């Protein structure tokens, strides 16, 4: 008989697996972290970070206008102290390229939107032109049909008049004389 696995063991293992699957955060070289953020990023304790600040291994600064005096640690100092791997830094060229591509993409998107708007206006103008041409065509067809019917009636009457005339050879042959 097999012993069922306790359900409490599986959920405890899953978050650890999920954390291992998440990519490590990457920081810009000019980024700075608080003591607790630095501890979380490096896996060291806050006390270790404090000791490193105290012994001068990590430099700190405060932001202008920060009335609370929150100490910030440059990410590059964490790398230099060996607490954070160099792969945690985003390449500046990569950052610039990403920003440049973002600007280029925005410019292309704007050009695409403008072109779509222009095409929509042109399409509407062409549709109006086609509608006008269809109306003209309908008038020409109606006029042609009117003239065709008028000519048919006129020819029919002319033929009847000619046949009714005694001088017409068909009238003499059929015996129709006026």
UniProtKB/TrEMBL annotation:
Query: In what ranges is there compositional bias, type Low complexity?
Result: 1-25
Coiled coil ranges: 116-143
Segments for region (Disordered): 1-45
Which UniProt keyword terms apply here?
Coiled coil
What name appears for this protein in its UniProt entry?
Uncharacterized protein
